[in-house]
């Protein structure tokens, strides 16, 4: 599975391709991440975590999937990239590490959890005052249904069928309202 996760032309090709866009977005808003403490929530196999660490950030990647944390640890060790990977939820981490991170990234993860507000609340607790939180998720609209589910899962077979559930997609207005509810100030969307 580790080989699949890090095969840039395999099943995770799309994640590798959008990783470039993720980094560009983060760097446009922050300009410099060197020595910043960054938390990657839902880090998966570590694609974004490793990219951030390679730019000089002090990265912690968390995920509930133990097998993905093992893949991430294995890959970062082989490539001599220092990332602290942990098998822990954002909610659990927020109980012990309040105001600990300069930057939090939560990319393409909220649409996979039943209670995204719980993650957003945890981000608000984990980020330092004056820090930044980045969310990226799939909009709940017809276009996303067609492209992300019908196209990507059924027609092009880029993702396993059932990867996404339309009812868990999040409208931008919902994300904005939840972020504001937990005192996160909006910079851009």
From TrEMBL:
SUPFAM superfamilies, alphabetized: S-adenosyl-L-methionine-dependent methyltransferases
InterPro entries documented for this protein: SAM-dependent_MTases_sf, UbiG_MeTrfase
Superkingdom, taxonomy of origin: Eukaryota
A molecular-function term among this protein's GO annotations: 3-demethylubiquinol 3-O-methyltransferase activity
Key word Phosphoprotein present: no
Presence of keyword Transferase: yes
GO biological process: methylation
Gene3D superfamilies in UniProt: Vaccinia Virus protein VP39
Keywords, comma-separated and alphabetical: Methyltransferase, S-adenosyl-L-methionine, Transferase, Ubiquinone, Ubiquinone biosynthesis
Stored PANTHER family: METHYLTRANSFERASE, UBIQUINONE BIOSYNTHESIS O-METHYLTRANSFERASE, MITOCHONDRIAL
NCBIfam families named in the record: UbiG
Designated name of the protein: 3-demethylubiquinone-9 3-methyltransferase
Protein species of origin: Strigomonas culicis
């Amino acid at each position: 599975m580790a080989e699949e996760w890090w095969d840039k032309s395999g099943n995770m090709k799309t994640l590798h391709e959008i990783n470039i866009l993720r980094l560009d977005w983060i760097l446009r808003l922050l300009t410099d991440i060197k020595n910043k403490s960054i938390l990657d929530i839902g880090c998966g196999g570590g694609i974004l975590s490793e990219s951030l660490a390679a730019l000089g950030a002090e990265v912690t990647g968390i995920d509930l999937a133990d097998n993905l944390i093992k893949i991430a640890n294995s890959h970062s060790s082989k490539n001599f990239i220092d990332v602290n990977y942990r098998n822990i939820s954002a909610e659990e981490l927020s109980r012990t590490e309040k105001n600990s991170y300069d930057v939090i990234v939560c990319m393409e993860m909220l649409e996979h959890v039943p209670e995204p507000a719980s993650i957003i609340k945890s981000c608000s607790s984990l980020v330092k005052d004056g820090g930044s939180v980045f969310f990226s998720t799939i909009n709940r609209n017809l276009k996303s249904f067609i492209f992300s589910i019908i196209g990507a899962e059924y027609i092009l077979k880029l993702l396993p069928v059932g990867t996404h559930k339309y009812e868990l997609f999040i409208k931008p207005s919902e994300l904005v309202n939840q972020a504001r509810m937990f005192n996160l100030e909006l910079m851009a969307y």
